[in-house]
Amino acid sequence: MSDVSIKYCGLSRPQDVVAAAEAGARYVGFVFFPKSPRNVTVAQARALALEVPLGIAKVALVVNADDATLDEIVENVPLDMLQLHGSESPARVAEIRARYGLPVMKAIGVAEAADLAAIDTYAEVADQLLIDTKKPKDADRPGGNGLSFDWGLLAGRKYWTVPWMLAGGLTQDNVAEAVRITGAKQVDLSSAIESAPGVKDAGLMHAFAQAVRA
Ligand SMILES: O=C(O)c1ccccc1NCC(=O)[C@H](O)[C@H](O)COP(=O)(O)O
């Protein structure tokens, strides 16, 4: 699995950036969602982004953000990608992509086969897709819940017209199986690299990276 790229999401402290870089992350994500334990302010994200070494993509995660919110983030935080993790329509994805001139990754929630149709739809307007577990009805956030979905739904459907990441409940113990079943070349996670909600753990980041490289 040494050719699998890792995105560590929900970093909120300088030491998280250092640990992610040392673990070999290809992407790091900053969450702009006030209800999340990983939420960062624009000022925090700016300070963190300025510490990210060259070669690691800095991703801002937003949920149904309006233009004013996005303007403030994009004007202040040096970014390489926007991750749209809400119910943004294909038209809104295209609009955001054109407005900011940044690559856009659209999250697609999957719980059953019928959810896969959205992958083809959004592949036409996004630069990347993040295929994640669909938000459970009782969850207060649409991602980062540490829950996986039936990876078998993606088996045999490895190729879309844009790059994609697998997310949702990935851990050092299950990532090999998830990659084997889905053929993912990129993986994204948050909960399994935390010692407490919102608190990233350097040891867990390294252990996950080792499991990916094994
Ligand atoms: O992480 C959050 O708190 C969050 C809040 C609102 C929307 C999305 C959020 N996270 C999305 C991510 O990119 C996660 O890394 C992805 O859903 C996987 O999370 P996990 O299952 O915890 O590994």
Give structural attributes.
214 residues; alpha/beta; TIM Barrel; 8-stranded parallel β-barrel; two-stranded antiparallel ribbon; 7 helices; globular; binds the ligand O=C(O)c1ccccc1NCC(=O)[C@H](O)[C@H](O)COP(=O)(O)O; aromatic amino acid biosynthesis; isomerase; phosphoribosylanthranilate isomerase activity; EC 5.3.1.24; amino-acid biosynthesis
The radius of gyration computed from the alpha-carbon positions, rounded to a whole number of angstroms, is: 16 Å
Shape, per Cα inertia axes: globular
- Can you list the strand order of the major beta sheet? 1-2-3-4-5-6-7-8
Runs in which pLDDT lies below 50 for 5 or more consecutive residues are none
Provide a descriptive summary of the structure in words.
With 214 residues, the protein is an alpha/beta fold. The chain has a single domain (5-213), classed as Aldolase class I (TIM Barrel). It is 30% helix and 22% strand. The protein has 7 helices and 10 strands. It has helices at 14-22, 42-49, 67-76, 90-100, 117-123, 175-182, 202-213; strands spanning 5-9, 27-32, 57-62, 81-84, 104-110, 128-133, 164-167, 186-189, 194-196, 199-200. An 8-stranded parallel beta barrel has the order 1-2-3-4-5-6-7-8, surrounded by 5 helices. It has a two-stranded antiparallel ribbon with strand order 9-10. Strand 5 (104-110), helix 5 and strand 6 form a beta-alpha-beta unit. It is globular, with a radius of gyration of 16 Å. The mean pLDDT is 96. Pathway: Amino-acid biosynthesis; L-tryptophan biosynthesis; L-tryptophan from chorismate: step 3/5. Belongs to the TrpF family. InterPro entries: Aldolase_TIM, PRAI_dom, RibuloseP-bd_barrel, TrpF_fam. It catalyses: N-(5-phospho-beta-D-ribosyl)anthranilate = 1-(2-carboxyphenylamino)-1-deoxy-D-ribulose 5-phosphate. This is N-(5'-phosphoribosyl)anthranilate isomerase.
